[in-house]
Amino acid sequence: MTETSRRAALADIREFLFRAGALAVLLVLLFGVVFGLALQPDDTMHPHIKPGDLLLFYRLPRGYTAGEVVVLDKDGRRYTGRVAARGGDTVEVTAANSLVINGSVVAESDIYEPTPPYEDGPAYPLTLAEGEYFILCDARAGARDSRWFGPVQTGEIQGRVIAIMRRNGI
């Protein structure tokens, strides 16, 4: 191997290492700051999200609106749920298993279970402060959500789910 070809090979190796390092830094920034990944551990979001699904979530939204699916950490545990109400809204889960927001019964055409209140849950009606959200799971019976632990603070929400990768059969 001549000196010129050796230098060219070393330059190619340096360029490859530089590009690989830049790619690694970019991936760390993207998935450490902008995006996140979470595994759906249970069937509390069934039938829309199934156990084992991989969730890609966006960490930088300015706020969340009703109907959006979010990943949150509450009391050291990760949950997935759907935003039902936000700061300023008044929420009530009635004895008739209905969800009432701001005095109106919410018709959820894609939720197939009633919404029962929990005995040790928050007292209703519950008016949410700014920066608070009422989060419900899609599979309502027995799910741990805001009926269990109360309102969720903005800082406890990790991000909005933007994509779901089905893991069944992989």
Give the topology.
Elements: H1 3-34, E1 35-39, E2 54-58, E3 69-74, E4 77-86, E5 90-93, E6 99-101, E7 104-105, E8 126-127, E9 132-136, H2 146-149, E10 152-153, E11 157-165
Antiparallel strand pairs: 1-2, 2-11, 3-4, 3-11, 4-9, 5-6, 5-8, 6-7, 9-10
Descriptive notes:
- The chain has 170 residues and is α+β, with helices and mostly antiparallel strands.
- The protein has helices at residues 3-34, 146-149; strands at 35-39, 54-58, 69-74, 77-86, 90-93, 99-101, 104-105, 126-127, 132-136, 152-153, 157-165.
- Strands 1-2-11-3-4-9-10 form a seven-stranded antiparallel sheet. A four-stranded antiparallel sheet has the order 7-6-5-8, with no helix packed on it.
- The protein starts with a helix and ends in a 5-residue tail after the last strand.
